[in-house]
Design brief:
Keywords: Cell cycle, Cell division, Cell shape, Cell wall biogenesis/degradation, Cytoplasm, Peptidoglycan synthesis, Transferase. The chain has 430 residues and is an alpha+beta fold. The protein has 13 helices and 23 strands.
Amino acid sequence: MTALYVRGGQPLRGRIEPSANKNAVLPVLCATLLTDAPITLRNVPEITDVTRIHSFFAELGSTVRWDKAAKTLEIDHSTISPGARATLPQAMRASIMMIPGLLARLGEARLENEVKGCTLGAREIDPHVAVFRAFGAEVTFESKNIVFRNKGKVEGTRMWLEYASVTTTENFIISALTATGTSQIVNAACEPHVQEMCAFLELMGARIKGKGTSMVSVEGGVELHGCDYTFVEDFHEVATFLALAAVTGGDIAVRNSQPENFMLIDRTFEKFGAHVEHKDGWSRLQAPAELVVQSNFTSHLITKVEAAPWPYIPADLLPIFIALGVKAKGQTMFWNKVYEGGLTWHTELSLFGAHTLLCDPHRLITFGGDRLVPATVTSPYIIRVAIALLMVAASIDGESKILDADPIKRAHPNFVPNIDSLGVQVEWES
């Protein structure tokens, strides 16, 4: 594990070209297994999980050329032999989205019993198992592995999810493309990265209706061809740099080709007295002289930021707004309706001198505006929490250290050089 040294206290200023969204890149990579035709992907970030998938494809027998400088990945799965076998990467949750492609291609896939990812509490795979079984797969335990086998002809189906899970929705859509007939999913996740995966599949020739809504229909049995696809900017990273401007009293513009996704995010910034402007493909936040939590019209209720599946504020963005809550004068309640382990890191904020109160596993109150001091803090294995701790450190005059900050590398390959270019001194130390 590595630590980040942060010398903060300066307003951050400048312009940033963000990377692509990890949560769009990984399912798209998994979906490439559906075709033997060559595929070119552009604006591919050099992140840990992409490296793992690249290695897995090579082990499987695919021809993969990755020009990291050009951010281009060329994939040709036609070189996979029918008897190929490979162990799915266990250290990332995206592994489970390779199963539909492997079932269609090889008839079998094996997954270690514990699929890892960010430490956000219990993240069951039962919804995924339900999807694979709905499409006719046999799922069994063998030693420490979960084994998925294709039992024959795959037919379309209809499924109503108990919860609008992103990866379950993506697995359903990918599986449906391998089936005959039309499949439909109700209570589908509709996050921007789910829509982006659908856009990629449509470019390959898939016929998908309802992307971006809670009811998606997929026509199966359509032959998919190759394509040349460029990933859009990660809306998480766009919002994070805007938050860095707010928390440090700075002025940052970020490239953003999809401002239509920011209406609720913008309103959330407004709750702390910060305004976002979208113009000519860029999003800009010029920090106010002071962050102040805005009062509700219903004066006896505390200002809230609620995170839930899209189109709510994404749970992945809640930590960056908690960082704003720590800095802004006033009280804010943060409600994570997704993960029961998503707020336990708040104790690290107290090392900076912040005052917070955990009401229960899902709700946290910040009492902002106190004077903060440099500190050494430890990040859990959660990407945006490591960034939130960095944000707070960047807003404080002096040197802080963030231990176990590696999760940042899982999603943002150029994050540290980017914020360094904005005026804060940050460096890695093993």
